[in-house]
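Hi R.,

Here's the input for the zinc ion complex you asked about:
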Amino acid sequence: RTLDGGGRHLLPGLIDSHVHFRTPGLTHKEDWAHASRAAVAGGITTVVDMPNTVPPLRTGEEAHRKAELVDGTSLVDYRFHLGVAGEDPSPLREVGAREATSVKVFLAGHHTAPHVVRDPVQLEKVFRTAAEAGLRLLLHAEDDGVFSLLDEWRGAPSGYAEYERHRPRSGAIVAVARVLELVRRHGTSVHVLHASTAEEADLLTAGAHAGLPVTFEVTPHHLSFTAEDTSRVGARTRLSPAIRYRPDQDRLWQAVLAHEVATLGSDHAPHTRAEKLRAPADAPPGLPGVQEMFPAVHTGLRRRAPMDSPDAQLSCLVRLLAEHPAELFGLDERKGRLRPGLDADFVLFDADERWMLEPDAIRSKCGWSAYEGWTMTGRVRQTFRRGVSVYRLDELGHDVEFGTPDGRWLDARRPADVEPR
Ligand code: DOR
Ligand code: ZN
Ligand code: ZN
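And here is the predicted structure with zinc ion in place:
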């Protein structure tokens, strides 16, 4: 069978290694069926889901049960990251690669992530155990302890505005420095999620150059929005970690273009409209992004690297959204080799089409997007999973098919067996 691609780019199916699809327990915010439709509309054919559900995902056994729950509802293939908090981490040694190759650790807590490791002794244990078990640790690196250290500053009459400005930034920077020290001591493979400040990019790049097994992720929203936008978009862009300032965003783009960043992850974390309409301090942090990530970052890349050819821009995105996540998370089950696209997951992409995300095209159950009203450059026209079309746009820009939700729980290999580059 042949396919007329109409002159569009053919790319491997993309992997979003950072989503919160909210199953089980938080399905009033999002559910797997909606989220996976949003994913294929954004060119994503595989996701790795985060453990901060209700109840949280902690063991290999629970991963099997979760896969049963998801089975029959997913347009995309999937894996899970496990979570760990205050409990004895030694059972992680028994987790098989089939179940998980990665464990997420929150260093600061909030609304949807009450499972935090704050105790330094416990944190040492988690790093040691992960190193012994050959599991990769994923870090939500923020620190709420540093807030109280800065309280004195807060008290100074002229210091308050400065305090507000720097408080969340310093929490992330302090946490990343701490993570690097733990990696140095224990040799744990670490992927730092949603790096948001210039200093984090500097520290993590220096750590990697010094030979530490550290990589990092950036999100589409930290590349797309700055603090100036938050006044316009409001609580929609309230996030953890927060949206930062222009120099941070410039440094993150530089890190993307200089190949310092390993992966892009959407951090797709929907909340209901009603939750987001609460007073800013009560609105839970998080926003949807699995549908928007690829075109939004492509749009930014056009602006940030205008001299690069469309092919070079797309190669950059394919590294960040297919090759690297496949390497880091051992997604090789199907043909025993680390090459995305091998089982005919692919995407037809029109790199020049300019379009707007209309409210009725939003597939997430939450029904809103921080990118509403944005003009995007580059649009997913069709998505195939295992050779079958699961998403297609017609010439008028309407979705015409979504396929059957027969996405599978993928097998994977351990980071120890697939240590990247
Ligand atoms: O903004 C966020 N939302 N940050 C997180 O770490 C969790 C996420 C969520 O699950 O809502
Ligand atoms: Zn996080
Ligand atoms: Zn997240």
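One thing worth noting: The CA atoms of residues 262 and 324 lie 6 Å apart.

Cheers,
M.
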